[in-house]
DNA sequence: TCGTAAGTTTCCATATAATTCAACTTTTTG
DNA sequence: CAAAAAGTTGAATTATATGGAAACTTACGA
């Protein structure tokens, strides 16, 4: 299973690279400064939850946590793990995308 | 590093996952989805680092951590916080974007 | 093939994210 | 308005991510 997954992982990576990366030339610099504001992430959770017409308690049930936890995630100024983000938006049937870009090329992570 | 013109018969990512992991919604599949994302995230760090011609040690110096830590991030031994992701890609002068999409609407988080 | 550089792993400590519970405040609604 | 529902907060706990040190393995150039 491990070997299998590893093999698949490499295939996936190669696919990704061949498709999206191609070759990248020389030096480059970041276009604009990027800053992720955690409040916005919390706002996103809230927005999507409202969109789905769920209370914090109901969303909590879907995920398996108390409403207080949802509240904290929504108004959170703290750091969050990827796992938590995925868990929440999955329950909300929303798709999360992470991408990394250098220069013109964009590498989709998920 | 990036292999060009590598003609191989391979399944699409979704095909692979459906065939070898199980259908969407199963525990196995969900777990794999998460692991896949994490693994690919590590691969992205590695790819961009290589692109910048940096060793793990050099990247570590930029961020202020040991090379072992970079190794761990690239090999995804753990879950990762947003802060860590941002820190790494910032050092690599790469731009990270998170976005959430549900149905037709897409909400940019950053 | 030897030596060095690069990368990995293990053990461990510390910081902090995730979470609950219960009391509290705010909002909704009958 | 008063009750109920929804949301917030703080204190405490648990789980785990971050990180260093050092030994180890792998890659690689002379």
Write out key terms for the chains shown:
homodimer; 110 residues; mainly alpha; 434 Repressor (Amino-terminal Domain); two-stranded antiparallel sheet; 11% strand; disordered N terminus; DNA-binding; Lambda_DNA-bd_dom_sf (chains A, B); Cro/C1-type_HTH (chains A, B); DNA-binding transcription factor activity (chains A, B)
Level of helix content of chain A? 55-70%
Strand-residue proportion of chain A: 5-15%
Q: How many H/I helices of chain A?
A: 5
Number of DSSP E strands of chain A: 2
CATH level-two architecture of chain A: Orthogonal Bundle
* Widest beta sheet: strand line-up of chain A: 1-2
How would you characterize the largest beta sheet of chain A? Answer: 2 strands, antiparallel
The most extensive interface between chains reads:
A-B, 55 and 47 residues
Low-confidence stretches of chain A: 1-36
The quaternary organization reads as homodimer
Mean pLDDT level of chain A: 66
Task: Kindly provide the radius of gyration of chain A, computed on alpha-carbon positions and rounded to a whole number of angstroms.
Answer: 18 Å
Organism (chains A, B): Subsaximicrobium wynnwilliamsii
Pfam families (chains A, B): HTH_3
Keywords (chains A, B): DNA-binding
GO cellular component, one term (chains A, B): cytosol
């Amino acid at each position: 299973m491990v070997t299998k997954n590893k093999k698949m992982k490499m295939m996936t990576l190669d696919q990704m690279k061949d498709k999206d990366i191609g070759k990248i030339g020389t030096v480059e610099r970041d276009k604009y400064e990027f800053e992720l504001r955690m409040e916005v992430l919390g706002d996103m959770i809230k927005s999507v939850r409202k969109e789905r017409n769920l209370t914090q308690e109901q969303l909590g049930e879907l995920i398996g946590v108390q409403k207080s936890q949802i509240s904290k995630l929504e108004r959170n100024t703290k750091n969050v793990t990827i796992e938590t983000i995925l868990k929440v938006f999955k329950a909300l049937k929303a798709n999360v995308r992470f991408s990394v870009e250098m220069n013109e090329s964009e590498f989709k992570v998920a």
